[in-house]
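Human: You know discrete backbone vocabularies at least as well as I do. Show me how you would write down a chain together with its backbone fold. No explanation is needed for now; the record alone will do.

Assistant:
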Amino acid sequence: MQAAQNELITRVGPGTPCGELLRRYWHPVALLDEFEPRLDPAMAKRPLKAVRLLGQDLILWRDVEGRYSLLDRDCPHRGADLKYARHEGDGVRCPFHGWKFAADGRCLETPAEGAGSTLCQRVRQRSYPLRVAAGTLFAFLGPEGAPPPELPAFDCFAAPATHSFAFKGLWRCNWLQAFEVGIDPAHASFLHRMLDEDVDPPDVQGRTYGRQFRGASAGEVDGERWPMTRVLRECHSPEIRHEPLGDKAAGLTRITTLRLVNERLTHVRVTNALFPYTFVIPLSETVTITQMHVPVDDTHTYWVSFFTSFDAPLAKETMRAQRLVNTELPDYLPRKGRENDWGYSAEEQASRTYLGMGEADINVHDQWACESMGAIADRTREHLGTSDKVIMANRRMLLAAIEAVQRGGTPPGVFDAATAAAVTGPDTIDCIAPAARWEATWREGCAAKRARASWLAAAGGGSADAAAAAPATAVPTDVPTA
């Protein structure tokens, strides 16, 4: 890749070509948990926090009526920092000269101007649309007055709160290299390889955070159940296929990874990528992860994960506690990084794991891969192979989407209401299948998983193919926004 192209696809600030593209989409700006006083005591008295998204500095706050608001961070009077605004319940007030703003950005008072002044009627702070889905506040930073798109009717947005859990974490790197790790099927055979036993002790099997490759069963081989860690270790040169799912779901790609176990059996892993930065993968036989890679700015990224259960309700407090071992509140900062070698152990690398950075949290493995490339990876120095075909296809899509926006067109993944309602699922699975009928087997497995989900049946089901027509699924908006 040429240096100019690398600059084009990684810079996200206002006015940059890629930044203008990304401003056509909804972005997770905060978890609702971030306003929970139990997790951040400061929110009990002052529910306001500074946030940064696509290189823009903003404040996110909740008024006395429970409405959420996203405003530019600099006061429109003299540019003072509204991170330190006085929260007055029905508005926020700049401490510099007392200008007060409502949740929708209206200027309510300019007290230094004296009686009779109408200045506040001519001033408005930029306010950005918000919506709530899957326990998360999504923001739209597109052109002022432009109608936001619709979110797809994904399972993670349709699942009830009992079967859904959202969490996030910060990586100190560009958004694109974070996303590219997630759509790279080959890396798991090496980066996440375990060298010792394949199964957790019985008392923690399937529940230890990050060891899902041990806890998740991938089916049977000659009557023996193979965990993913064995599949990845022994079948490390997969066949990778990627398939756009049609005009109705432009920007949605199914990624199928086939690992030949023997002459009769094939391991099948089906995942999905939604442009510009979302992937959907199986965590286990009953839980799916939908993960987004949100550009904070050019050199920082929040990954935001939505866990969706198709079986029992999720133990959300346990899941949160597991993740807080390596994540620090209230800003969801990583406890491991370049400053402490991401927890690297040469002894562990020699005897237990391929990487040597722990086995209780494989998310750290991905963090190392992304951050060790540098804040912005230099793609001019790469030597890509056939196993990188999905990454190459995504980069071509990204370059074409930037060009489309520059021409005034609509990029992939920007859905109107009718299209969004048809973009359902998408299905994911890990399974071992007869080599002669692997495609039918994975579809049958997905159908069985969906049939067991009581909440999905109540919502009208959903097709095995995300691009197929399906009844509209409402995106939850139970928390008011300005």
